[in-house]
Amino acid sequence: MNWLTNFIRPRINSIVPSKEVPDNLWQKCPSCEGMLFHRDLEESSKVCYHCGHHLRITVKERLSIMFDDGQYETVELPKVAHDPLKFKDRKKYADRLKESQAKTGLKDAMTIAKGTIGGQKAVIAAFNFSFMGGSMGMAVGESIVKAAEIAVKEKAALITIPSSGGARMQEGMLSLVQMPRSIIAVEMVKDAGLPYIVLLTDPTTGGVSASFAMVGDIHLAEPGSTIGFAGRRVIEETVRETLPDDFQTAEYLLDHGIVDMVVQRGDLRDTIGRILNLLMSTEKKSKKAA
Amino acid sequence: MSQLDFEKPILELEGKIAELRNVSGENGVHIAEEISRMEEKSSRLLKQAYGKLTPAQKVQVARHQNRPHCSDYIKALIQDFTPLAGDRNFAEDHALIAGLGRFGGQSCIIMGHEKGSDTESRIKHNFGMVRPEGYRKAQRLMKMATQFQIPVITFIDTAGAYPGKGAEERGQSEAIAKSIESCLRTEVPIISIVIGEGGSGGAIAIAVADKIYMLEHSIYSVISPEGCASILWRSGEQAKEAANALKLTAQDLYSMKLIDGIINEPLGGAHRHKEETIKNVKDTIDGALQDLLPWDAKSLIRTRREKFLAFGRNL
Predict the structure, then answer these.
(1) Does B201 sit within 8 Å of A235, measured CB to CB?
(2) pTM listed for this prediction
(3) CB contact under 8 A, B201 and A229
(4) Which end of chain B is more exposed for a tag (fewer CB within 10 A), N or C?
(5) How confident is the model at residue B3 (pLDDT cuts 50, 70, 90)?
(6) Are A257 and B171 inside 8 Å of each other by CB?
(7) Which of A180, A104, A99, A182 is nearest to A139 (CA)?
(8) Cβ–Cβ contacts within 10 Å for residue A203, how many?
(9) What are chain A's domains?
(10) Angle, nearest 10°, between helix axes A178-191 and B172-185?
(11) Rounded to an integer, what is the distance from CA A55 to the centroid of its chain?
């Protein structure tokens, strides 16, 4: 094997120019293991065309399928104190941050964007799972506050799209207080009479699910997403019983009354557009509001 | 659990003193001298140990089973206590005890995590780990506090919200989130005291308050040091390092301006001096109520929001 990989393959690679054969043309569906061709997968918005499994997508891809005509404007993230705890485990948090920033080209685990959906103004605060597991620290919390302020100012709906393991423990209590802070952001939007929609995607757990993600006027979820408070393993160790296969899935939460709808990725724009039009169109206002 | 490893020499000495006291009736003066000598030594050791508790030691002290619990504070500080039960929907959760009562002359809603004090009561109170019903009871009583315009006092002491199958099925996340929302919407003053362990979302669910205090050796953290160590160090054995890194002590959180004050514990900790500790908590609540009363609902809610929005912005 060594001889093949160390000697023969480099020789072949040097003869055949590698850019003509990118090695990511095909990928396996993590659910059904069916082979997926990259161009077809892009066309289906990263939904497996064999079994319907929703693969994780980047925030850029997500925003372009959510906003009308794929058009939106991103907003710069607010500045926050970096690493106030000087946290260090096996690695310095400051270094982890820098690595994630270099890897993703993002400042933190959040993107704020504004545009229209179904013709209605909307601000989206979307989590980047690839940035430290989408964990919520000060930058993410402050971004939710900023997204809410923009929504209020521009009379737009607020949509959050969590994809996060929970709080960013490297920021200690400063990350825990993002739970109430993010809910205050939502309160500002609700006070202004604007809709607040949560699109729960894979995964939404811990301090993120137990805060702004569960106080939406409407909760949508992508098929198969893991959504819950405690991790499956922790629960299994606590209750010492095996949990059903679909435990903490979007469908399970729909059955238990925690989400309103499980929506296919391809239907998201239409569904959200329809909801926003029903909630925001002017003729529905009661006499009192007028 | 009832013995802290760093307290061992002190506990041995305290044991000997108690023994000597028992026999002192027979031998009079000589033993009395010996006892006072040993007592001096014991208080010197206590001063040494408690003068510089490490964060990991504070975690141990904060979890000490002889610390006064929520029910002890209610018994000592609340007159006419009238327990209230249930979320009106599914169940009564004994991990979060609550009721009406009088603090000084003032009618209040009192609620808090209760860990229990012996095996039987610990099981009854689920070791202070609240299920969704507990948080929904909290929401119900916050609304009631607004309805009748009576302040809320909460006592925080939990390892965290309960991680169970039923808890997930009944929306643990939603219950915690809505409990935070209820705190934010409550149109009366809320005072929270962390009396032992402030464990993550399960703690902050009822601690979004106008005034937040912590006992000197209590802790408040986004995750337990053990949990943090097993994730970031891939081994629970690094819990001491994690306790250091998380900045979870009352002193750390006060310096980060996340709490309003630290309540002194007598030398040797609350588990040695229940009455004095409870008295100190009483004085603190007294002062906080004086600060907050009378109130204007709108400005109270605005100020509470501003307080939380300011967290971390001034670092």
Answers:
(1) no
(2) 0.93
(3) yes
(4) N
(5) confident
(6) yes
(7) A182
(8) 23
(9) 22-55 (no CATH), 57-289 (3.90.226.10)
(10) 70
(11) 12
List chain A residues with pLDDT less than 50.
290
Q: What fold does the segment set B59-309 form as a domain?
A: 2-enoyl-CoA Hydratase; Chain A, domain 1 (3.90.226)
Nearest to A263 by CA among A210, A227, A224: A224
Question: Distance (Å, rounded) from C-alpha B167 to C-alpha A235?
Answer: 10
CB A199 within 8 A of CB A161: yes
**Mean of the pLDDT values across residues B257-265?**
98
Residue A118 distance to chain B (closest CA, Å): 28
For chain B, the residue count is 315
Chain B residues with CB under 8 Å of A172 CB are 221-222, 245-248
Percent of chain B whose pLDDT exceeds 70: 97
Helices in chain B by DSSP H: which ranges? Answer: 8-27, 29-51, 55-62, 70-77, 119-124, 132-148, 165-169, 172-185, 200-204, 225-228, 239-246, 250-255, 274-292, 297-310
Summarised one tens digit per residue, pLDDT across range B204-229 is: 999 999 999 999 999 999 999 999 99
Beta-carbon contacts of residue A94 (< 8 Å; ≥ 6 apart): A82, A83, A86
Please give the Cα distance from A196 to A204 (Å, whole number): 17
Domain boundaries defined on chain B = 5-52, 59-309
Taking residues B109-117, what's their average pLDDT? Answer: 97
Confidence at residue A84, expressed as pLDDT on a 0 to 100 scale: 93
B163 closest CB neighbour out of A187, A214, A238: A238
